Amino acid sequence: MPFKKLHADIKEILESLEITTPTPFQSKSIPVIKSGANVFCTAPENSGKTTTLVLTTLHKLKCQEVGSAPRALVLVENSVKGLALHDEFIKHTKYDALRIYACDDREHIELLKSEIFEGVDVLIATPKTMNKLLLLEGVNTTQLKILSIDDAEFLVEKTAYAALMAITQSIHKCQYVLYSEKMDPILKRFESYFMQYAKTVSIK
């Protein structure tokens, strides 16, 4: 059972939320993501993709804060989705052991920079904001272990696609996990760039 092999803190939270049985998608995807491979995850809505993203990120970071630079980055389509994802992380985090920060695009970039500088474990941002932060040297990517993209269909849009490509060029080495409902040819194209040797987990 995928949940049984997750960090003890996560299992405790899942029990308190009365989540005991993984969805078919979670059963299939969690072991592959935990292996450290780059993964394309495709499944319909309400398959448990977002929860999988949260659980595997927490597991990768061993549910503890370390240093000040982000060790996980989650890219989202917009700030509304980013703030909703932030709430999901908090729901699954024990005693706020990890510092989760969602960039709100409506805030001034200098404010985002100063708040990230205070120390973040999981950073949630749109590709545009993340790219802007990198250009202003407002975020350190040297400690990144995993980069996940939630509902990745938005990357077919040119500016989001270009921003993502710029972001990945500034990351030395990390695991990439991309979640979407369907595999768009544009998403598949990432295999030639940063998703080398990617595995695919698909539920219909």
TrEMBL record:
TM ranges are none
Supply the alphabetized keyword list: ATP-binding, Helicase, Hydrolase, Nucleotide-binding
Top-level taxonomy: Bacteria, Pseudomonadati, Bacteroidota, Flavobacteriia, Flavobacteriales
Q: Could you give a GO molecular-function term held by this entry? A: ATP binding
State the InterPro entries in the record. DEAD/DEAH_box_helicase_dom, Helicase_ATP-bd, P-loop_NTPase
Q: What are the Helicase ATP-binding domain coordinates in residue numbering? A: 30-201
* Domain of life according to the entry: Bacteria
Pfam families attached to this UniProt entry: DEAD (PF00270)
Write the protein's name. DEAD/DEAH box helicase
